[in-house]
Structure of ISL3 family transposase:
Amino acid sequence: MNPELLFTQALGLTSPWAVDDIDFDPKAQRIDFRVSCEAKQLPCPGCGRADQPIHDRKPRTWRHLDFFQFAAYVHAEVPRVRCGGCKKTTQVEVPWARPGSRFTLLFEAFALTLAKAMPVSTTARQLRTDDRALWRVLDHHVTQAQAREDYSTVTTIGVDETACRRGHHYITLVHDLAERRLIFATPGRDAQTLKGFSEDLASHQGKADQIRHASIDMSKAYISGLGQHLPNAEITFDRFHIIQLANQAVDAVRKSEVRHDARLKRTKWAWLTDMARWSKKQDEAVYDLTRSNLKTARAWRIKEALRDIFQAKPGREQAEGLLKRWHSWARRCRLEPMKQLAATLKRHWAGVLQGFESGLSNGYVEAMNSLIQAAKARARGYGTASHFIAICFLIAGKLKHLPANPFQTPLQRMVAS
């Protein structure tokens, strides 16, 4: 088998395309494949009319996946067809690259695979190309893949915010909790972000009134946005957020008391961590304090009682009785942060109780946020919100229409999806 035929097959080319020359330069660490189109007539790319004459040919070059340790490039004189039907002269599409790209489809697919696991700048260095060009590839494919997603069966969502960059720049993320995937992301964290979601849902075969359940924190903006734009959604206030509020209240008590009692120094994380997860050092330092008359210990016991209610997962009716007793205790405890916590839960009573009926939480959402923030930290931030959103969809979107990793078998792709 001659090398031209071998590489024609390796590149997946079929008639009328074929490799007719190979230029290997070991000093430059590159290999160039020259591809020709043998056809004299081709269908019009515009109107599809068959057997139209080739008007001229334009030279183009694409970066391809490396062959061994050598950078590979594909060169071709791409025909332009002069159509007698539509009277236009149009360049034909080549089978190995999308229109307008300077990379082959296989190169782009591999770049997307790497970008899921490492910063785009690192991916660019590994692939020996420009990171700005890779961002264009990533933005294009993520946008196209997300546009093709079908959200007609989405009924249960989790809504949260995540920091985009320093200076109070946030994006709102909406996840399909049933399928555990990101389905919408937009800059901001106000009520209008939910309007944007309802409009985006409609463009993906969904309807705003099909959303029956929404798990959120106690953000006034999200509560308002759900009421205005997703009127059928029963709100569940995320139990992880409620425990986070309780931890903040305990820490406020500790900060006030530590100025007068040195025993509380260097104990912050023990008061905020589930006792079952205490280290030996934390256990030795704090266990006796939890049984004392310290204000922090009293606040901690109130917080742990609230945590126990959520961990027990009682039914709604039983939970309401337990929460009423807890609320009475917290309201009368003479610890202002805990009284404020009790008042906050009372204001959001229906949504708190709904959590015991729906069983929803934003645990999965928070886990995805951790992965997203870890990716942002590795990349040392992203230049634009659109880039950050693209990374969010790569990590959490489970997009079905991205180019497949060229180094995975069909079976591996099926398992990965």
